[in-house]
Amino acid sequence: MARSQSKMIRAAMVVDDPNMVAWLPYLNFLRFLKRNFYPRTDLRRLLQVGLIRWIALSDAQKRLFEPERILARVARRQRNKRRRRLLRRARHGQKGRGAVRRPIYDSRPKPRRRKPK
Prior knowledge:
The protein has one domain. Helix content is 51%, strand content 0%. It contains 5 helices and no strands. It is rod-shaped.
């Protein structure tokens, strides 16, 4: 028996690839069901279950599967990843996190101590 659908539909679970977004929200919903809940189900069974679940969704939940919303989420996720990567790089400076090595200090002779008499 298949797992029951969770109450909350996560935006990241809908579609990751912008090339896979369909113009009809129902097709995006079927892809979401197939990927997350019924991966081994044939097409006929998926259409039977998908229609029942699609009718049970509220209008706000159905709007999650509109192509504009999906593409906006994908763009927002890429923007946030890029921003996080830049912040992480800026935290350690331009050259990285290693200590600055100054070769002038390596060539100096060690100071000599006078021996006590």
